[in-house]
């Protein structure tokens, strides 16, 4: 995959990284995704530590959350042309970003297993340096932004979060959360209640758009 500036010694690892469980229940990218998530997280953390030496842990954490989010991963995957190479089963429109993001993490896991952490970190750093430099102000997380917005416009009230349900397989659960504020509600989903709450806050911010 030349767009990643990496040549696989074992091309089968790349093919596995691009195979979703809906295509092959036994030989798919879920285990590589597990590894790649950790490799990406550490690589981006090290990059941010280098690029923003004067920022606090909280500021670095907010940058990190944005840069390893599903939206960012799907964006990178699209730019690298993965959308046309991922082997997937039936996929609804709402799952496209998640499938691309998972495949992107799996590719990083494959590079780590194929060439070691140094090569995986190099590839990730080459891609993420420009993404990290695009916003010189540390972002606020969506839940904080929503809380500040609601407090400002609703007499100090706070958003109310409600856990709805868990779906998906037991080994890969999807959590669903609803947030309500200022007479509006939105739902979000994620691999944990925390990420689902963040997704719900993002959706409600779009609705309120004050």
The major sheet is characterized as:
3 strands, antiparallel
**Number of beta strands:** 3
Order the strands across the largest sheet as they lie in space: 1-2-3
Our Rg estimate from Cα atoms comes to: 18 Å
What would the principal axes of the Cα set say about the shape? globular
Query: What structural category do the secondary elements indicate?
Result: mainly alpha
Low-confidence stretches: none
Distance between the termini: 43 Å
As a percent range, the share of strand residues is 5-15%
Mean pLDDT: 88
Helix content: 40-55%
Detailed description of the structure:
This protein is mostly helical and 210 residues long. It contains eight helices and three strands. A three-stranded antiparallel beta sheet has the order 1-2-3.
Task: Set down the secondary structure blueprint.
Blueprint lengths: L10 H7 L12 H22 L5 H11 L2 H10 L16 H20 L1 H17 L8 H12 L6 E8 L6 E8 L2 E7 L2 H16 L2
Antiparallel strand pairs: 1-2, 2-3
Helix pairs in contact: 1-5, 2-3, 2-5, 2-6, 4-5, 5-6, 7-8
List keywords for this structure.
three-stranded antiparallel beta sheet, 210 residues
Task: Give a short summary of the structure.
The chain has helices at 11-17, 30-51, 57-67, 70-79, 96-115, 117-133, 142-153, 193-208, and strands at residues 160-167, 174-181, 184-190.
């Amino acid at each position: 995959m030349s767009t990643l500036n990496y040549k696989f010694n074992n091309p089968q690892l790349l093919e596995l990284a691009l195979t979703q469980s809906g295509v092959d229940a036994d030989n798919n990218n879920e285990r590589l995704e597990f590894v790649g998530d950790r490799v990406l997280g550490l690589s981006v953390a090290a990059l941010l530590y280098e690029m923003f030496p004067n920022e606090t842990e909280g500021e670095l954490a907010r940058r990190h959350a944005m840069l390893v989010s599903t939206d960012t991963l799907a964006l990178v995957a699209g730019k690298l042309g993965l959308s046309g190479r991922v082997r997937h089963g039936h996929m609804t429109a709402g799952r496209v970003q998640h499938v691309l993001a998972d495949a992107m993490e799996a590719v990083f896991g494959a590079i780590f297993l194929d060439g070691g952490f140094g090569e995986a970190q190099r590839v990730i750093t080459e891609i993420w340096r420009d993404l990290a430099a695009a916003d010189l102000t540390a972002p606020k997380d969506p839940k904080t932004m929503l809380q500040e917005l609601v407090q400002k416009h609703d007499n100090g009230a706070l958003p109310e979060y409600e856990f709805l349900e868990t779906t998906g397989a037991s080994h890969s659960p999807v959590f669903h959360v609803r947030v309500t504020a200022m007479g509006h509600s939105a739902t979000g989903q994620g691999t944990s209640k925390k990420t689902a709450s963040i997704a719900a806050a993002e959706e409600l911010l779009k609705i309120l758009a004050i």
